[in-house]
Design brief:
This protein is α+β, with helices and mostly antiparallel strands. It folds into two domains: 102 residues, NE0471 N-terminal domain-like (2-Layer Sandwich); 293 residues, Double-stranded beta-helix, CATH 3.60.130. It has eleven helices and 20 strands. The strands form six sheets. The protein has a six-stranded mixed beta sheet with strand order 7-8-18-11-20-9. A hairpin with a 2-residue loop joins strand 2 and strand 3. Helix 7 runs antiparallel to helix 8. The radius of gyration is 26 Å and the shape is elongated. Its cofactor is Fe(2+); L-ascorbate. Pathway: Amine and polyamine biosynthesis; carnitine biosynthesis. Keywords: Carnitine biosynthesis, Dioxygenase, Iron, Metal-binding, Oxidoreductase.
C-alpha cells in the first residue's frame, strides 16, 4: 500500500485540499482538517489523547492553512508555511477518511452490537431456550459475566442478576459495577423505601402504577434503573416491563398501512409533552421540550418519555390538534398495555432487575402488606463508557476517534 498524491489546491484558506490514492481508491482531505488533527507531539498529547493546539485561537486561519504536501516513505507529510510539519500514516488516513463517502471505510471493529427488540413471546423464548438473563452475583466480577450483563442491558434493554445478598450493601455493589449512582432529590445514593409517602410520589404508596419511564420532568433523565426487593409480606406488587423499541416498530408498521397512524407516529415523535413533579414543596421539576418518542435520523428509538401520572394539564400552542394528540397517546397506551407486548413477573429478594430507563417501560400492580424496595438510578454515559471498554481493545478504540 502506497500513498499517491493525485491533486491539491493551495492558497485558498479553508478550501485548500489534497486528493490522494490509497488501495486504488481516491480520498480528499481538506488541509484545515489535517492541521486540526496533526498527530505530532507538539499538536497532540499522547497520554490524554487531546489536542494541544487550538487551530481557532493558535494559528491564523487565513494564512497558516497553506503548505506543501508530499509523500515521504509511507507517510503523507504537510510542510506548513509557518514552519510546522504534520505527518500522517497510511493507516491513519484510511481510518479517518471522510470523502468521498462511497470510498469511506467504516470501522466495524468498534461498532456496538445491534439492539434486539422483544415482545412477550420473544421474551419467553429467549428465557426458556438459552442462558439469557441468568447472571450470578457470585461471578459479577468475572470479565465474561460482566460482559454478558452489559450486553444484555444494551441489546435487550434489561437483565437480571440472581443470588444477590438481600442487603443495601450488595445492591450498592452491583449498582457501582454497572455505572455511577446518580443522586436525586429522592436519595443521594441507593434508595430504600416503603409505602409510607416519605416522598410525595405514588411510588411511595401501595397503589398500582401504570407503564412509565422515570424522571420525565428532568432534563437529565436517569439512563438506567436498578430494582432489588428486600421484603414483601403481602400480595401483589408484580412488575411489568415493555420494550418501547418493539412498540415503535409496531407503530411504523401501522403507519405504512394507515394514513391516520402516520399522523400518530408524527405526533409521538415530534409533539413535545410536558411533565412535572410537584409533590415536594421545596422541589418543583418540569420539562416540556421533548416528544414521547425521541428518534434518530434513521427513525430508531433514542428515548421514550412517558408517565401519564406526571403529565401536566398544559397543551397550549401545540403543533397538532389536541384531540389528535390524545388519539396518538391513547394508541400508544393501548400498545404498551397489550398483553402480547409486555411481560409480568414478581420481584424477589436476591434478584436484581436492571433496565434501560430510556427504552423499557415499567409498571407495578397494587399490593398489600409491607413491601421494602431498594435500588438506584445509574448514569447512562458511564455505563456506555464501561461497556465500550469491555468490548473493544483500547488501541482499536483510539484509532476510531
Amino acid at each position: 500500500m502506497t500513498i499517491q498524491i493525485v491533486d491539491s489546491v493551495e492558497n485558498r484558506s479553508f478550501d485548500n485540499y489534497v486528493t490522494i490514492k490509497l488501495n486504488d481508491s481516491l480520498y480528499l482531505f481538506h488541509l484545515v482538517y489535517l492541521r486540526d488533527n496533526c498527530t505530532g507531539k507538539e499538536s497532540f498529547h499522547g497520554e490524554t489523547h487531546q489536542r494541544l493546539i487550538d487551530i481557532f485561537n493558535d494559528i491564523d486561519l487565513e494564512k497558516d492553512l497553506n503548505g506543501t504536501v508530499v509523500v515521504e516513505g509511507d507517510e503523507l507529510v504537510v510542510k506548513w508555511f509557518d514552519g510546522h510539519i504534520s505527518r500522517f500514516t497510511e493507516r491513519w488516513l484510511l481510518n479517518h477518511a471522510y470523502y468521498p463517502e462511497k470510498n469511506v471505510i467504516n470501522n466495524k471493529a468498534v461498532k456496538l452490537p445491534n439492539r434486539i427488540t422483544w415482545c412477550k413471546q420473544e421474551f419467553n423464548e429467549l428465557k426458556q431456550a438459552s442462558d439469557h438473563f441468568k447472571n450470578d452475583y457470585n461471578h459479577i466480577n468475572d470479565d465474561s459475566t460482566k460482559k454478558i450483563i452489559f450486553n444484555e442491558i444494551y441489546q435487550y434493554g434489561f437483565t437480571l442478576i440472581d443470588n444477590v445478598p438481600v442487603s443495601l450493601d450488595a445492591t450498592k455493589e452491583v449498582s457501582e459495577l454497572i455505572s455511577i449512582i446518580r443522586p436525586t432529590h429522592y436519595d443521594t445514593g441507593v434508595w430504600d423505601f416503603t409505602s409510607d409517602l416519605s416522598k410525595k410520589d405514588t411510588a411511595y404508596t401501595s397503589l398500582a402504577i401504570d407503564m412509565h419511564t422515570d424522571g420525565n420532568y428532568w432534563y437529565e433523565t436517569p439512563g438506567l434503573q436498578l430494582f432489588h426487593l428486600l421484603l414483601h409480606d403481602g400480595q401483589g406488587g408484580e412488575t411489568r416491563i415493555c420494550d418501547v423499541a418493539h412498540i415503535l416498530k409496531l407503530i411504523k408498521d401501522k403507519a405504512n398501512e394507515d394514513e391516520s397512524w402516520q399522523e400518530t407516529l408524527e405526533i409521538l415523535t415530534k409533539q413535545p409533552i410536558e411533565f412535572h413533579q410537584s409533590g415536594e414543596s421545596e422541589n418543583v421539576f418540569i420539562e416540556n421540550r421533548y416528544p414521547i418518542l425521541q428518534v434518530d435520523k434513521d427513525g430508531e428509538l433514542i428515548q421514550c418519555r412517558w408517565n401519564t401520572s406526571d403529565r401536566t394539564s398544559m397543551l397550549k400552542g401545540t403543533k397538532y390538534p389536541v384531540n389528535e394528540i390524545y388519539r396518538a397517546m391513547a394508541r400508544f397506551n393501548d400498545l404498551i398495555n397489550d398483553t402480547d407486548n409486555y411481560v409480568r413477573f414478581p420481584l424477589a429478594p436476591g434478584t436484581i432487575l436492571v433496565f434501560d430507563n430510556w427504552r423499557v417501560l415499567h409498571a407495578r400492580t397494587a399490593f398489600n402488606g409491607k413491601r421494602r424496595l431498594c435500588g438506584s438510578y445509574l448514569t447512562r454515559d458511564d455505563f456506555l463508557a464501561r461497556y465500550r471498554s469491555l468490548l473493544f481493545n483500547r488501541e482499536q478504540w483510539l484509532e476510531s476517534v
